[in-house]
Amino acid sequence: MVRKLKFHEQKLLKKVDFIAWEVDNNLHEVKIMKRYCIQKREDYTKYNKLSREIRELGKQVKELDPKDPFRTETSASILEKLHSMGLIPTKWSLELVEQVTASAFCRRRLPVVMVRSKMADSIKLATQFVEQGHVRVGPEVVKDPAFLVTRNMEDFVTWVDSSAIKKHIMEYNEMRDDFTLA
How far apart are CA 138 and CA 136, in angstroms? Predict the structure, then answer.
């Protein structure tokens, strides 16, 4: 049997309607967050907001006159930026801007790029490597799994020189030099 609610509890419950509760698109959100191993919900909401703004911008540019030089200039710059970030596959059509989703941003996260380049077996393991400080992008060590990797930076994702993982890989490939890796 349930205890009787105290006065302040009853008063609080009057303000909340449990029958007509606002349900977010929570199932889809949780599914995407689980697939890409996103720990912070704020990251996913930021990706959603950015993708929505990009799609709206694309629609506004499409509504301009096709012969307008501003439209051609703007659409070219938008497509170039999205392509260099890796959110769209090619920079030929403004139709691709409408297909930018939060998942496109999730696919550019550092752990996902590591899995794609075969540096880790799973996104969860890659996230652990990043958080532990085993990965660097260019000269800088990255400890944030939400780091977005552009197309240009993909080639510079490597292991930190002092990383035990790098030592194991070098030993496995019989390339370890005792002088350089003390």
Answer: 6
At residue 8, the pLDDT reads 87
What pLDDT is attached to residue 164? 86
What the block records as the tokens of 179 is 């002088």
Q: DSSP labels for 48-116?
A: HHHHHHHHHHHHHHHHS-TT-HHHHHHHHHHHHHHHHHTSSS-SS-GGGGGG--HHHHHTTBHHHHHHH
Q: Choose among 107, 78, 108, 101: nearest CA to 91.
A: 78
List of residues 6+ apart from 32 with CB closer than 8 A? 38, 44, 102, 103, 106
Give the pLDDT mean for 69-78.
94
Same domain, yes or no, for 154 and 94? Answer: no
pLDDT at 42 over 80: yes
Helix (H) or strand (E) holding 171: helix 164-172
Q: How many domains does the chain have?
A: 2
Return the pLDDT at 124: 96
Domain, as residue range, for 156: 110-172
Query: Are 71 and 121 part of one and the same domain?
Result: no
